[in-house]
Structure formats: structure tokens, C-alpha cells
Write a structure and sequence with these properties.
GO terms for molecular function: 3-deoxy-7-phosphoheptulonate synthase activity. Its EC number is 2.5.1.54. Keywords: Transferase. The protein is globular. α5 links the parallel β6 and β7. By secondary structure, the protein is of the alpha/beta class. It is about 40% helix and about 15% strand. An eight-stranded parallel sheet has the order 9-8-7-6-5-4-3-10. Strands 1-2 form a two-stranded antiparallel ribbon. The protein has ten helices and ten strands. The structure holds phosphoenolpyruvate. Phosphoenolpyruvate binds next to loops.
């Protein structure tokens, strides 16, 4: 279902009316985690002012440590919905449990499946039945074929509105949080008709890498990027060191606008 060979043309996926696919370089930005109404609104206003057309933000956070901030859950979803009403930005947010898919889909414009759930087949199937576009991150230990097969689990349930997201893989290299597999973008676009975007924030894990990795994503023809921003990264409850502040985001957005995407 997701193979390019069977489908031909590359697909465009629309999220609340915003297109992601060939000919686009969609900028998705927002906080890693929804922490409060003020923090989420400030991050969204930064994102919108810079030109981002979709708002990201996690209400359910899959953290390595059970002692780390786990997200606000449904209260976070309500904050996202309020911020959408105020800014007009459609929402991309993660769902971590098959039992929460209906709840998250009742607020979200796009469901995000994170790297740690890339082979959670019950979750993938539930997301495929939720009636919302799905952004599917590549498993940090997953091959491109495993990633595409994960997409196949979603598609099999009747949902072909899937966007693949390369977010870095686990290698021997520890200088970056993950190794951005930039070649995965053209390979996945060759093998699948689905749009492919890049997450330079979670791959590099560091603010100074976000712009260079975004340039790389544009250069290889990614259909979009998803970027962490925070009004006060030093106080962020999740992944502050990789969050961009206002000026950084505007500079990045200019690069996204000025470098024409490959079609
Ligand atoms: C995220 O985007 O909030 C996230 C946790 O990403 P990943 O699943 O790629 O680690």
C-alpha cells in the first residue's frame, strides 16, 4: 500500500488543510512538551511568526526515565486545542498507547507515533483507524524497510495519510544524540509514495545542529522539517538543549523559505 512501485506519483498529505509532500517544505514547530497554557501559546506564536504552518507539542511524552516529566496528558491536549483556536495552527501531537488513540484523535489534527513505538503494531493499527493523518517516526534501531512496514500497518487499516519522519538512528557515535540518516530521505522517497520529513531537533539533540541539519534535509529533498522551539529553553521540562529560541527559528525559517525544495 505504501510502495511507490504500486502507486507511482508521490503523495501529498493534508493536515488541517496544510499540504506536506512533493513541492512543499512544510515547517512544523512548537514545544517538545506542552508544559502550560502560557508556554504553549508563546511557542506557537513564535512558530507562527516565523512562518510555521503546523504546531507540534507533546501531551503524552515517552521518556527514557520514568522519573522524567511524562507530559500533562489530556490537560495538555486541551491546552493545544485552545492554542489552535487562538492561532489557527493545526496540531501534531504524539500518542503512545493504543488505548489513548481515540482520545488524542479527538483533539489532534495529526497523530504522531514516536521512535520508541515504531514497531508497536497494536498502536499503529489503532492509529490507522482513527481518521487522522499519521506522522510516523523511524525507529531509532529500525531499518528503512522496518519503517515502511510500520507504515504498512497503518495503511492496512484504511489510512494512507501517512508522513514518514527521519529522526536519527542509534549508531556508535555519541557526539550527537542520534545520527541523522540523511540518505534515508531519498531512499524512502524512492521506495514509497509517502511524504518524508526530517526532525533535526531530536536527531542532533543540540540547538547548534538544528540549522545545519535542516539545510541538509532541504538539500536532499525532504518534504518538511519538524523543529522544537521554547520561549525559555533553560527552564524547559523536556529537551531544552535542542529547543530553538525566537531569533534562531526566524533564521531557520528564512533558510527554509530561500532554499527552493527539490521536486
Ligand atoms: C518528539 O518528537 O517529541 C519525540 C519524542 O521524538 P522521537 O520519538 O523522535 O524521540
Amino acid at each position: 500500500l505504501v510502495s511507490r512501485e504500486n502507486h507511482g506519483e508521490r503523495s501529498v498529505v493534508r493536515v488541517g488543510g496544510v499540504p506536506i509532500g512533493p513541492g512543499t517544505m512544510t515547517l512544523i514547530a512548537g514545544p517538545c512538551a506542552v508544559e502550560s497554557p502560557e508556554q504553549t501559546l508563546q511557542a506557537a506564536l513564535m512558530a507562527r511568526a516565523a512562518g510555521a504552518t503546523l504546531l507540534r507539542g507533546g501531551a503524552f511524552k515517552p521518556r527514557t526515565s520514568p522519573y522524567a516529566f511524562q507530559g500533562l496528558g489530556e490537560a495538555g491536549l486541551r491546552i493545544l486545542a485552545d492554542v489552535r483556536a487562538e492561532t489557527g495552527m493545526p496540531i501534531v501531537t504524539e500518542v503512545v498507547d493504543a488505548g489513548d488513540v481515540e482520545l488524542v484523535a479527538s483533539y489532534a489534527d495529526m497523530l504522531q507515533i514516536g521512535t520508541r513505538n515504531a514497531q508497536n503494531f497494536a498502536l499503529l493499527q489503532a492509529a490507522g483507524e482513527a481518521g487522522r493523518p499519521v506522522m510516523l517516526k523511524r525507529g531509532m534501531n529500525g531499518t528503512i524497510e522496518e519503517w515502511l512496514m510500520a507504515a504498512e500497518y497503518v495503511a492496512q487499516r484504511g489510512n494512507l495519510d501517512i508522513v514518514l519522519c527521519e529522526r536519527g538512528i542509534r549508531t556508535f557515535e555519541r557526539a550527537t544524540r542520534n545520527t541523522l540518516d540523511i540518505s534515508a530521505v531519498p531512499v524512502a522517497q524512492r521506495l514509497s509514495h509517502l511524504p518524508v520529513i526530517v526532525d533535526p531537533s531530536h536527531s542532533g539533540g543540540s540547538r547548534d545542529l538544528v540549522l545545519p541539519l535542516t539545510r541538509a534535509a532541504i538539500a536532499v529533498g525532504a518534504d518538511g522539517v519538524i523543529i522544537d522551539v521554547h520561549p525559555h529553553p533553560e527552564t524547559a521540562l523536556c529537551d531544552g538543549p535542542q529547543a530553538l529560541v525566537d531569533g534562531d527559528l526566524r533564521e531557520l525559517a528564512k533558510v527554509v523559505r530561500d532554499l527552493p525544495p527539490l521536486v
